[in-house]
Every structure is written in C-alpha cells, then in structure tokens.
Task: structure prediction
Amino acid sequence: MAEPKWLQDMNPEEYLKEDFEATGHSRYTVDGLDKNDPEWLDKAAAKVGAAEGDDYVKLDSGLLTVNQLNWMLRNTFGEMTYVDDNNQFLWYNRPQDPNYKMKAGRVPAQVGDTMGAVHPDIRDVIPTAKKVVHALRTKEGGHDAVWMPVPTGNLTELVLHYYKRVEDEEGNYMGIYEWVQDIYPFVKYFCESTGQKLVVDSDAATGATYRRNSDPDAKTGPSTKAAAAEEEKKEEKPDTATGASHH
Result:
C-alpha cells in the first residue's frame, strides 16, 4: 500500500509492540474461547446470548432487527471490517453476491481471529498493519484516520483502504473500522455529472509513483509511455506521500 508520509515516519520500536495475538482483555472480550477457532462466532454468540434473527436492536438513532442490520450492511457500498481495541477481528460485511470477489478477502471462519492470524506473515504485512493500528490507537500526530491507496496497475481503478479510529462517547479508543473500495466509479460519476475531466497535474508533488505502477496508456494518465517517462524526470524527490509499500 501507499503510506502517507506521517505514517512512514513512525518509530518501529513503538508500533511493533502491538499485541497481534490479542492476549489482552477488551471491555467486550468473550473469555474462555480460542479466538482463532473457526467456530468462534457461533460459540461466542451462544455464550453471551447474542440477539439474532428478528430480535430488535435499539441503536442511538434507530430501531432495527438483526436481520435488517445484516441486510443493510451486506448491501452497503464497499467492504467493511471491525477490529476491537484488543486486536481481535470481530466482524465484516459478507457480500450479498456469493460470487463477488472481495478486494480484501475475508471468510466467516475468520471472525474472532486475532490480528496475527488474519494477516499473513509475509514481507512487511504484519509490521505495516501494526503501524496502522498503533497510529490510530495513539492518535499519532492527531490523526484519527489512515488513507492508503493500493496501486493495481490500472489508472481507471483506485482501491482505497480507509482505516478509522473508533471511539466511545468519552473519546476512548475502541478499535478500528476499515472500508475498502475502488473509488474510481465515484470520480467517474462526478466527472460525467459535472462535465469535468481528469488530467495529469505536471506540478503535483505526488502521484507519479502511482502512475508509474499503472498503465500509462489509460485514459486518465499520460497518452504515451514517453510522456510518462518525461513526467518522471520532472520529479525532484521521491514521492513520499504515496510511495509504494505493500500491505
């Protein structure tokens, strides 16, 4: 993923301390169960007597049944996940379409897993994930959200991973909400609706790395590879704001 500059500058001695085995205890941790048990969801729900089906849930601004919540969230635009303050993966909005291929793949058996189990231990995946979690846990530099675009090799696709700090009414850290989606359809619709178009800003200090990792002949990028090469020469320093960092 492409990390923002402020995230790149974080101290690894601090963020690598994040406990991705979820050995701590959250306010809502369900004790006595193996967090990485593929049947954790059913066992935890039974243990706490969780509402389900047509049971009503009173929210701060609404009254819905569990079924209604599920239907709404499964049809919401984008992929969503929630991880609590003990680094335990507790929920994702399973796609309504069983044939839909998720951009950040999840399966029901992962619900309840520790963050260490959810993320593959390859390359810099876990260190990067720990960095994001720690940044939002501590509100690094006052930030309560992390935006990470993922180069896909296609300039008409921009997959965004958006991580948002979740707080209770007193401002205490309660976990992270993640939203993943290709946001290009929004941009395309905006341009079509307003009669505007996308062009490359030759004076921009960011974005060239993303374009170099994508198709230079795409409609929203330079018209030729020569133009892309020429644009790269104009850069005086590395693109630190959107530099490639694979998650």
User: Anything to note?
Assistant: Residues 218-247 have pLDDT under 50 and may be disordered. Residues 51 and 66 are 7 Å apart (CA to CA). The chain has one domain: 5-233.
